[in-house]
Amino acid sequence: MIDSSGFHTAIVHLYRGEMNRMTVWRERLDVTSNWAILLTVGLTTFTLGSTEVPHYILLLGLALIAISILIEARRYRHLHHSKWRLYLLEVGYFGEHLAASPDEPSRLHWQSTMAQDLRCPRLRISWLTAIRARLRRNYLLLLYFVTGVWITKLFIHPASPTSSGEFYLRLAVGDFIPPWFVAVTAPIFVGAATILAFTCPTLEQLEDWSKLKC
Q: Which of 127, 128, 156, 179 could bond to 172 as cystine, CB 3.0-4.6 Å?
């Protein structure tokens, strides 16, 4: 069966299908990143363009960026999974047929591994790892940028603060959230994002299956 023409045809279609699947997830990843960038630029222009716009609009922007990260992390998990499948096919199937000694058994046992994954798909990385990866790749700089714009907004609108106490009071979100809460949670949020990003392996390391043994 493995040497039949039908098997080879099925593998070619499977490879084409996985290539299309990977392309679709990559495009979805780009869409999320583009929306996050447009959101950042739009909020920056809107808040700095008028003294009447409150500073906490930028805090809402941070929350929306966080939601974008969660969405993009899910999409990256599927992209990562598709890349792993393509690696199995390229090294296991195509690599065997292009090798000088095609009778040498594959160290990947790619056929049983692929069959098991097709029957019961299992994403190769966790959601938290995907979040850390996308933070490291794109979103950490966006968070820094929005945070910088937010601090600038607090300093310049409606006028430069005359004391540190006045600046502290400006952190309040209307009468609903006191300044101490913002002063505590904002640095924690940015600091946690920084730690998650810098402790995550690079995408090149996450997508390096050269030492994979199934």
A: 179
The residues near 54 (Cβ < 8 Å, ≥ 6 apart) are 173, 174
pTM: 0.84
pLDDT tens digits, residue range 142-179? 999 999 999 999 988 888 888 888 889 989 988 888 99
> What token pair was written down for 189?
């949020």
SS (H, E, C) 173-196: ECCCECHHHHHHHHHHHHHHHHHH
Distance CA 56, CA 172 (A): 8
- CA torsion sign for 132, 84, 117, 32 is positive
Evaluate whether 194 touches 123 at the Cβ level (below 8 Å): no
